[in-house]
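Hi all, long-time lurker, first post. I run a small reading group and we've been trying to get comfortable going from sequence to structure in the token notation. Rather than ask abstract questions, I figured I'd post a concrete chain and ask someone more experienced to write out its structure so we can walk through it together at our next meeting. Sequence below, copied exactly:
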Amino acid sequence: MAELVGGAFLSSFFQVALEKLSSNDFIDYFRRSKLDVNLLEKLLITLNSINHVLEEAEMKQYQSMYVKKWLDDLKHYAYEVDQLLDEIATDTPLKKQKLESQPSTSKVFDFISSFTNPFESRIKELLEKLEFLAKQKHMLGLKQDACASSEGGVSWKPLDRLPTTSLVDESSIYGRDGDKEELINFLLSDIDKGNHVPIISIVGLGGMGKTTLAQLVYNDQRIKENFKHKAWVYVSEIFDGLGLTKAILRSFDFSADGEDLNLLQHQLQQGLTGKKYLLFLDDVWNGSEECWERLLLPLFHGSAGSKIIVTTRNMKVATVMNSTKNLNLEKLKESECWSMFVRHAFHGSNASEYPNLESIGKKIVDKCGGLPLAVKTLGNLLRRKFSQHEWVKILETDMWRLSEGDININSVLRLSYHHLPSNLKRCFSYCSLFPKGKWFDKGELIKLWMADGLLKCRGTEKSEEELGNQLLDDLVSISFFQQSRYGDNKRFTMHDLINDLAQSMAGEFCLRIEGDRVEDFPERTRHIWCSPELKDGDKTIQHVYNIKGLRSFTMDKDFGIQLFKTYDILQQDLFSKLKCLRMLSLKRCNLQKLDDEISNLKLLRYLDLSLTKIKRLPDSICNLYNLQTLLLAYCSLTELPSDFYKLTNLRHLDLECTHIKKMPKEIGRLTHLQTLTKFVVVKEHGSGIKELAELNQLQGKLCISGLENVINPVDVVEATLKDKKHLEELHIIYNSLGNREINREMSVLEALQPNSNLNKLTIEHYPGTSFPNWLGGCHLSNLSSLNLRGCKFCSKLPQFGLFPHLKMLSISSCPRVEIINSSNSPFRSLKTLHFYDMSSWKEWLCVESFPLLEELFIESCHKLKKYLPQHLPSLQKLVINDCEELKASIPEASNIGFLHLKGCENILINDMPSKLTRVILKGTQVIVSSLEKLLFNNAFLEKLEVSGFDSANLEWSSLDLPSSNSLHTLSINGWNSTFLFSLHLFTNLKTLNLYDCPQLESFPRGGLPSSLTSLRITKCPKLIASRGEWGLFQLNSLESFSVSDDLENVDSFPEENLLPPTLNSFQLERCSKLRIINYKGLLHLKSLRYLYILHCPSVERLPEDGLPNSLYQLLSLNCPLIKEQYQKEEGERWHTICHIPVVDIVG
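-- Answer (accepted) --
Happy to help. Here is the structure in token form:
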């Protein structure tokens, strides 16, 4: 943690500028260019003079609009100074680079004449502006800070890491136990809202803890046990029906492809039909009643017990969404605030141990007004300033009396911001560009900070990336950033109020362009982020071109969205008019090529072209001397320019998933490279593997392909992978084998020994007959993931048990391995083990211990006969697919919850695990041997899928199947038998899906369970023929019915009294022969709200006598005769359905 020494926003900038101006390089440049060196001295004096009053000015800006304007003017000219200094710093190396390509006879003369430049007039103009501002400081009453150092600015000081108690325990809240229990009781209740899903709205001020409370409920064990389908969606201020529908689909792990809202909503409805789910909609701001009613429409198809939770600041939102219940969060009590404050401010100690701080702390807490975010933020700040003097300063600061707007928390957060170091303030305010709710990647953000020069700071020997990591951790520790709690510790977001604070601090210098905003933007804007929802990009960009000092421009484009009509014109104007850019992101833009004029952006440090269609880069890109980050992942690139080595400042080059065929010559000269995701070895001189020799700063992931092109193993030794201690992941790929010398290939891989710090290793298509020694010993002691794929000539595997930290092991497509022997050492850490396509594998001598193994996959190992490990105490998931000869008992695993057995008819099932929640069985013998045992011994089974049963002679009635009250979803696919096992025994069955059961003639004796809410029948012609005997009319719980079948010989459907009057949703899909939808079959459906007719080309019309009055939505997709007659306002029968609230006639 960096010690949080307060500093004005501009202090760190001034310090960097002062150091540049004082450097020998700048003085030499002025002399060689015959510039007035006195200008440097005057500029230094003026900047120093201003620097000493920055701290006081930053405090007084909230009391005086004149001071605020003075600071804004100063910030503007500070950017101008930075721009000028960067241009000067870039001028010399660019001229030298240009001179190197000229004949030697003209070099001396050209070098001298090249220093004739226009900088002097600009320096004089800037000096005049800054001197004017310096004179104003006295009129504004700004005095030199007595605490300021003679050099000005602030330093960054490393401090020992605090114990883990400094990290917020998000599972712990204060004063919300009653609210939490009230929420959970509501969610577990049996509230009946008819055709609607009950909604509860958590309402409260920003920073009150609405989201934290909702997240705690989301993760409560009782909720996990009662809701197997949960989703969390962040909504934000701008209502976007399409984007929200996609977000909900993805959160439920459904596909969300396409841009058609109707189809996506239908997809969502299908996915949720008959399922009990819980959906959290976090931070809802607005949206009309009509918009929300349309958006929520598919959600009403869930089964009974489904619930929706909404968090919002606005009670009107709760009204618009027709909430069943509102929970209004009140401010915390004084005692609760104090408990929270102690937790964050006192290092986990008892506050009474610090009596002086305790009394001051209570007064500070009292000023927080009962707002949890304020208490938490200030507590984290004061933990870093653990002295009575510092606490008194914060208690007595004038900033408590300052207010902006009507939410008191602003002054609290502003106080926390004020006490940040200068460079941390600048980094934080830069993040105002991110939309509310956006998750940003740690590495990406650090690269953006670096591109804007925010990571230049004296007092540390850390690299810019290391400093960026530290500063980001600091922002997390004081709760300005929130870390993802879903296993990804590299993704972060900001609370909405923190985002508001960042915007307030950034002011007019950072701009987010969203929605249909087309206007003149402030000329002082330096950073712009364009929303993917931008309505008219072409008009907007014309206004952007007027901002000559723009430093960063991001087009945050979603897939399938065309922000601009012509990207070629966009490039030409952008590169010619915005020459001050340091950061440019054209990610996902529909770019076919990059314009040569990119070389105009001489100060560019960050360029993102990933996910574009660019196949090659122009040679002129090699003139971008300052370029540090070049992102090209997932684009169509096949080669890099030959002069690529000139980008000597390049630190991050992402080539992942490109089609690069070779590396540019002499890439090894780019010794600052830290990221190089892909390296392709070729035989050409200057492009071989030896180019890696000097790249010892490489970090993260490196994929080396084309190793078959290595001629001499000595070259690999010279690549010194063993010295690359920062490398975390290595992917080794052999491409075309051809006529190879096996011994040489083995020597090559032996010489490719990585550093012992390596975390992940993949070896693919290795042509040797044995693996290298370093893979079988203890050398890779930190290895956690190992993947061996397509090693066709290796017959023996290394001793993997020797890797003490190995968590994931995958072995696939190794056709010569026949026996996998036991290891002398146990797999102490292994959690996932995957065997795939091991065509010759016959025997697994598995006596090793797998104490922590959670997932075991054995797939397409057709000759495997024996054995399987028998004692797996931690196993949770077992998948055995296409292992036809396997004769072994499934492991003893008391904790297993997911079992998938397919194509393993000889598997021995003695005792079925008792805690299974989901089971997939495929194959006649597997089903026969396991179904009865499964149902007898599983009180937790919720989902069962059976398929591939092909035995017409089996009498299922002879099986003594027990009843089950836990099973709620049953799917039967490819059932080639006349009979089906009893279904009425599943007393709590909610969803039944029947797919491709051509011989099934009827439902089993005893009928369907009365609890059934959703029934889907697909390709079951004989069952359809016996529909008169179904007895669906008696199922009072059935809400959703779907049929997908040719309906051969069925002229009219459904017949009268076939369907129950409780039906809420009825779907006809791919009924190619159906002509008439029977009015009498729909007449009694008084609860029907949703009617879907999909891909039914022969349906002539809708019922002439009309549709049920209860109908809310009618969707017709790819039904040409219906479209012709019922198209909105154009079809001759449109008037018969125009009263239905939602009508969609598509395709």
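A couple of things your group might point at:
The longest strand covers residues 229-236.
Residues 1-6, 105-116, 146-171, 403-409 have pLDDT under 50 and may be disordered.
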